[in-house]
Design brief:
Layout (H helix, E strand, L loop, with lengths): L27 E4 L2 E4 L2 E2 H8 L3 E5 H14 L4 E5 L6 H9 L3 E4 L2 H9 L7 E3 L6 H10 L3 E4 L2 H11 L5 E8 L21 E2 L4 H10 L4 E7 L10 H21 L5 E3 L17 H19 L5 E4 L3 H4 L3 E13 L2 E6 L8 H5 L6 E3 L7 E7 L8 E9 L7 E5 L20 E5 L2 E6 L4 H7 L4
Parallel strand pairs: 4-20, 5-6, 5-13, 6-7, 7-8, 8-9, 9-10, 9-11, 11-12, 12-13, 15-17
Antiparallel strand pairs: 1-2, 2-3, 4-14, 14-15, 14-19, 16-19, 17-18, 20-21
Length: 448
């Protein structure tokens, strides 16, 4: 494995105001309004690559990977690629010693194209297509997480009588956790996994044990996203070890792996709660050791799947202001992006803390609502946020915590094209993903 690159030195003048606490650690303001990330002025990035543009701080990504490695030194850390994936990101994960979780043949193909070792990749998904499974088997992924009973027979048939594939089973532990109803996945009333309470998980495991070409290596669960408390993970440990104990009693089975998923909460605005990673690691390890001792089982190897917690705070989105409208007692600041490059405010009501960059504000802060360019009333980037009262067309706005579930969820709405991604580090910026052009859009349309 290539040696990890050295982290960027801390800037001489770090951003001090509390409102910028959610920015990458490298963020600095050497002159009023001139905000830099990774030693590169954001105004320079916007001038070079245009807007909207995502800025990804490579050193922040690596720093967060290392924080997980330090907190869980004996665990498998798998980056959840659905948060954001490109070839450079896959390479960084490889260099930092992480595995990858993918949810489709497309994510798998891109990771392998970047040179990521397939045996350190896990395939997830509640509705894996035949293409997903065949691609995973062709490349030899390390694990496939079984999510439904029908998947067992399909996978066994695809592997063939002489083949071999390691699998895990996604268990629904019946625990409600997460920042929004649409991202809670540990309860019975959603599409993922096999229920612990009604016996479906145990039944599926019995069926897997009857398939000699499938090797069951462990159990998997994922409680949801934006979890900021440790307690739900401890409850999950107890319930999963309880299932392991029953499997040992019924089948003499000792499973060597336990995957607790991810969903680790981050702050999108200053003052919001975050999951305490060192505390999570200490409490989970202690709970796992105690539960296994009580069940007289060896402690399985833990697997953790951070995605948002690695990529999210490492990214900043840049927009140019197109117009400012004051109507109905409110100020609307319209930018050249919106829900096509970040649907999360419309989907989950997520709130951000945008900031004017590129020039010092010449007036006091006043409430404004930053809106997008799309033909939807719900196309709101950030509602009722403080911006200088003299904000005007042509200004540059930066939205921190934009590294996860922005480009990966971007759409083709209004055919505006998806933004590029630029990486910054040590005073240099480079393009990772180019802007989607009108030629890209035209070339897909073959109707004439």
């Amino acid at each position: 494995m290539p040696a990890p690159a050295p982290a960027t030195a801390a800037p001489a003048t770090a951003i001090g105001p509390a409102e910028l606490s959610v920015w990458p650690a490298s963020a600095a303001e050497p002159r009023p309004g001139d905000v830099t990330v990774g030693g590169v002025a954001l105004a320079e990035v916007a001038a070079r690559f245009g807007t909207p543009v995502y800025v990804l701080d490579e050193s922040e990504v690596r720093r967060r990977c290392r924080a997980y490695r330090e907190a869980f030194p004996d665990a498998g850390i798998h980056y959840a690629a659905k948060a954001f994936l490109c070839r450079a990101m896959a390479r960084w994960m490889d260099e930092e010693g992480l595995g990858l979780d993918v949810c489709s043949a497309g994510e798998l193909e891109l990771a392998v194209a970047a040179g990521f070792p397939a045996d350190r990749i896990v395939l997830h998904g509640n509705a894996k297509t035949p293409q997903d499974l065949s691609t995973a088997l062709r490349y030899g992924v390390g694990r496939i997480v079984i999510d439904s009973p029908s998947e067992i027979a399909r996978l066994a048939a695809a592997v063939g009588p002489g083949g071999h594939q390691r699998v895990m089973v996604r268990v629904v532990p019946g625990i409600s956790a997460g920042g929004h109803a649409k991202i809670r996945t540990g309860t019975e009333d959603q599409k993922f996994g096999l229920s612990l309470s009604d016996g479906y998980a145990q039944h599926a495991i019995t069926r897997i044990l009857d398939q000699p070409q499938l090797e069951l290596t462990g159990l998997h669960c994922h409680l949801g996203s934006q979890i900021t408390e440790v307690k739900p993970y401890l409850s999950a440990v107890r319930r999963m070890v309880g299932l392991m104990a029953r499997l040992h009693e019924q089948h003499g089975l000792v499973l060597p792996e336990l995957d607790l998923g991810g969903g680790h909460g981050i702050a999108y605005r200053p003052g919001e709660p975050v999951l305490d990673l060192p505390r999570l690691a200490r409490r989970v390890r202690a709970e796992l050791a105690a539960a296994c001792a009580a069940a007289r089982l060896p402690v399985p190897r833990l697997i953790i799947e951070p995605g948002r917690a690695v990529a999210g705070p490492s990214g900043v989105a840049l927009y140019h202001v197109v117009s400012v409208k004051r109507t109905g007692g409110r100020t609307f600041v319209a930018v050249d992006g919106g829900m096509s490059d970040n649907p999360r405010p419309a989907l989950y009501g997520v709130r951000y803390a945008p900031r004017l960059v590129g020039r010092p504000g010449g007036a006091a802060l006043a409430p404004a609502t930053v809106v997008g360019r799309h033909c939807e009333a719900g196309d709101v980037v950030a509602a009722d946020v403080p911006l200088p009262a003299d904000v005007r067309a042509g200004d540059l706005l930066a939205v921190p915590v934009a590294g996860a579930y922005h480009l990966s969820m971007a759409s083709g709405y209004n055919l505006v094209g998806r933004p590029p991604v630029a990486a910054v580090r040590d005073g240099r910026a480079r393009l990772l993903v180019r802007r989607e052009s009108m030629e890209d859009i035209r070339s897909r349309d073959v109707g004439l």
